[in-house]
Amino acid sequence: MKKILIVEDHLDIRKLLKMTLEFDDFEIHEASTGDAGWVLAQELQPDIVLLDVMMPGTLTGLDVCRRIKDDPRMRHTKVIMLTARVQASDREMGMAAGADDYLMKPFSTLQVLEKIYRMEATL
Amino acid sequence: MIGGAPSVQPMPVQGEARCFDEAAARQMELFVQDFGRMYRERNDALREVTRAHHGALLQLSAAAELKDDDTGVHIVRIGYLAEALALALDQSAGYARMLRKAAPMHDIGKIGIPDHVLKKPGPLTPDERQLMNRHAAMGAEILGRSHIPVFRMAAEVAVTHHERWDGSGYPAGLSGDAIPLSGRITAVVDFFDALTMDRVYRRAFSVETALEMLAAEKGRAFDPAVVDAFLANAADIDALRCRVTLERPSFDDLIDSP
């Protein structure tokens, strides 16, 4: 079963994401700040991380993404950035930080699953 | 906040944003839950339809084989051998699994060939040969109406399993890489399996002879890379062939094996 970590500060969004992933069989973990997300990522070495860009705390989503991508134990880990902004700059920064894909909020439930399935196929 | 948060609701931790109205959030969760239920039900229904369709087409393929001169285990073997050969060629497990399910239907078009041609003991006249060769395209017609990936692959196998690497095959006269890999693999396992089984008009060839005959067709009928992979794994593939013959996996096994 694939391990997925959701790092998102907004409780309701996190819950909706979790419920969406529960449509299928995934092992789901959650964190509500970048700092907590980074700690959990090191511990779990998840297959896929859904990562919010803007979060309170010392680490932003981009920081966490860079750290995951720099960590040799997480070479298999795919990162999907969650971005609320429509600007292309957000996406570019995410890609520069090594993100594998991104999702724009508000997200489509089916799109979330399709992206995950596509990533799963490459794992 | 009316009624407070339900006990299952995780409490927001400090600094955590929570902007939805409580009642709206709960309503939204119910929407998502219902949507999830429908999503799963829809996937289950699709799987069920695929399964039923697959079962029926395998039965039809078996009927076509029985019209020929086989007991039905040949087509199941073709599936497992094609899967093993695909893996030996470094294809993904998903591709190999799909080929296992698709390849057994390669001769389904024989259902449309009149018995006096299909069962004719002697050599066929050019007209009869032409009629016989139509089974490839007929199979693709039967299988190709579906949009489900495994049947698309099965149709591809049906229409290309008599193409030859050197371009002298039928129906399209494709050569080399223009022949899909699924067809190139199935052609090889079909050849080997047909040689190593008893037919009404001859005894089975020994494995050694069959391998020699296979090697002789390398670069002629068959893709050299596929033949090489087969020969390099001949012992394992032959062991698998014997195991399938012995254990006689059902169509359900063929569809359900991981």
Short description:
The complex is a heterodimer of chains A (123) and B (258). Chain A has helices at 11-21, 34-44, 61-70, 88-96, 109-122; strands at residues 3-7, 27-31, 48-52, 78-83, 101-104.
Topology:
The complex is a heterodimer of chains A (123) and B (258).
Chain A: E1 3-7, H1 11-21, E2 27-31, H2 34-44, E3 48-52, H3 61-70, E4 78-83, H4 88-96, E5 101-104, H5 109-122
Parallel strand pairs in A: 1-2, 1-3, 3-4, 4-5
Helix pairs in contact in A: 2-3
Chain B: H1 22-67, H2 73-88, H3 93-102, H4 115-118, H5 126-133, H6 135-143, H7 149-160, H8 181-195, H9 207-216, H10 224-232, H11 234-247, H12 251-256
Helix pairs in contact in B: 2-3, 2-8, 2-11, 3-7, 6-7, 7-8, 8-9
Tell me what you see in this structure.
The complex is a heterodimer of chains A (123) and B (258). Chain A has helices at 11-21, 34-44, 61-70, 88-96, 109-122; strands at residues 3-7, 27-31, 48-52, 78-83, 101-104. Chain A is α/β, with parallel strands linked by helices and 123 residues long. Chain A has one domain (3-122): 3-Layer(aba) Sandwich (Rossmann fold), CATH 3.40.50. In chain A, strands 2-1-3-4-5 form a five-stranded parallel sheet, sandwiched between helices. In chain A, helix 2 (34-44) runs parallel beside helix 3 (61-70). The N and C termini of chain A lie close together (12 Å). Chain B has helices at residues 22-67, 73-88, 93-102, 115-118, 126-133, 135-143, 149-160, 181-195, 207-216, 224-232, 234-247, 251-256. Chain B is elongated and about 80 Å long. Chain B has one domain (22-256): Hypothetical protein af1432 (Orthogonal Bundle). At the A-B interface, helix 1 of A face helix 1 of B.
